[in-house]
Amino acid sequence: MTVYYACKYAPLELIAGFGADCAALDPLAESFSCAERHAHPNLCGYAKAVLEQVEQSRVRALVLTNCCDAMRRVYDVLEASGGLDFLYFLPLPHQTGPAARARLARDLGRLAQALQTYTGRAFDPALAARAFVRRSRRPGPHITLLGAHGGSVLYHTVQQAFSLPVVDATCSGNRRVELPGNHLPDTLAAFLPVYAGALLDQPPCMRMEAALPGRRALVDGETAGVVYHTVQFCDYYATGFAVPGTEAETIPMLKIETDCTRQTYTSGGGQLSTRLGAFAESIGAQPRQESADAVTDPGARYAAGIDSGSTSTDAVILDRSGRIVAYSIVPTGAGAKAGARQALEEALTRAGLTEADLGARVYTGYGRDFIGGEGGAAVTEITCHARGAHHLDPEVRTVVDIGGQDSKVIRLDAEGAVQNFVMNDKCAAGTGRFLEMMARTLQMPLSEMSTLGLAWKKDVTISSMCTVFAESEVVSLVAQSTAPADIIHGLNKSVAGRTAALAKRVNGTPKYMMTGGVAKNQGLVKELENRLGAPVEVSEYSQLCGALGAALFALDALNRTPDPAGEK
């Protein structure tokens, strides 16, 4: 028989003492259709995914703990359903002192009685002893995955993004229950007090009192970077909480959020892979040497960068001196590969070149991993926009990139390297897509919208950043005969406010540069300047910044190879 669990404080060794196997829940839902029939839709993603897994995997025995209110609701739902053969809810103290240990020992005793009834077996100390796992040493330099439990898919996704090993130190991954001494007590009554102490001696979870100081042990001197994970709507592991030392940037940290659905890694995976990839690039821990893969012909004299975005695909061609010889901007269309092919062909035609003249290529943007079949390397758009902006103006320290489906703010050092970055969530609010939809609602082209917002007279506020709700507000304002310029001004304020908040999160400082297609919106740029309290530079190549950065990385690789014509 198998007893499932969802918390590192689950007494696995005690359960094993009754001859049962233990298995961790590893929830990853396709949808929450089952969970939302029985629970409130605002329950956190992990709790709903647990309900989905229990129902769909036909879990028969489960031990839960009061690790949070959401898991209490999970227990209530499962208890009411009556569908499990064994369901137990173990109360946990918030402290680790003598009184807490004594209380936990008593509660474990009650669980032991329930297990004996369920299994029909008496407690066997030898079986319990074999269940203890000795702590393994960490594998030298590594990435530490912290925060809320994310399951095996999250762990493997993070591991694929880095060349360094990843240590799972999430709330369930950092389970460290040590065998107390060389020998266990040979009776259940003597075992329980000792065992309760061992459970509570683990690195504390965030529900424990004074959790943060105790969690310093999860990050050691060989931690090269921290990926901090939280589940959407999780209170205990919200991104405002982290391990001391990382927040002060003594250790680089990337904060990510998932909702325990497969869509996080598929439709939403573009953002997740971009964040992980950019973080790996910034700390020098990417899985392979991208520049080596970029070279297709060491003897050629030109390099190309292709930025495959959600709305447009951009291509830039450089000669060995770094001069832009041609570029193109085309709609991405239905397929990233076709859009990349069209953009490159147009740029080659304008330059009077053929593909045989290209010696290196680098792809970036969300479609970067789908368009490299003909040779070339992939680099994240975070890194490429940083490189492109630094090339255009070495004094730029903060890059604001508002693209078709996401917004990014990137802080640079004096050498143009990425110091920190932040992206919007999976919502389209504050992106180019948001503005496109508003322009459609106002029945005007984007080009007109970009300048009309400068002519506002009445200060209109669009209170909602949700694209759907904001559209409703715009429709209402149109019905009230509000001037289009005033409505556009309100939209620009909304986007600028959201973008300025992102800039604050990365401690953005002047000089600012705005990149991406939305940089053409003059009214939005002006509102962003007002929010930031500083000028925002817009280059003639702002929309091409990602492709330019990619081309520069390709050029780096090409210039490390001999030029048969002797040109530099």
Description:
- This protein is α/β, with parallel strands linked by helices and 568 residues long.
- The chain has four domains: 2-131, Rossmann fold (3-Layer(aba) Sandwich), CATH 3.40.50.11890; 142-282, 3-Layer(aba) Sandwich (Rossmann fold); 298-380 and 547-559, Nucleotidyltransferase, domain 5 (2-Layer Sandwich); 398-538, 2-Layer Sandwich (Nucleotidyltransferase, domain 5), CATH 3.30.420.
- It contains 19 helices and 18 strands.
- The chain has helices spanning 12-16, 35-38, 45-56, 69-81, 98-119, 125-131, 151-161, 188-200, 211-214, 269-282, 290-294, 336-351, 381-392, 432-442, 446-452, 467-479, 484-505, 522-532, 545-559; strands spanning 2-5, 21-24, 61-65, 86-90, 142-147, 166-168, 223-231, 253-258, 302-308, 312-319, 324-331, 358-364, 377-378, 398-402, 407-412, 418-423, 512-515, 536-537.
- The strands form four sheets. The chain has a five-stranded mixed sheet.
- The radius of gyration is 28 Å and the shape is globular.
Strand content: 15-25%
Question: What do the pLDDT scores average to?
Answer: 87
Under CATH, the topology of the largest domain is which? Rossmann fold
Question: Given the structure, what is the number of helices?
Answer: 19
Strand tally is 18
Give me the secondary-structure category.
alpha/beta
Poorly predicted runs:
none
Please report the first level of CATH classification, the CATH class of the largest domain.
Alpha Beta
Q: Total domains, how many?
A: 4
Biggest sheet: strands side by side, in what order?
11-10-9-12-13
- What does the main sheet amount to? 5 strands, mixed
Outline type: globular
| Helicity, as a percent range | 25-40%
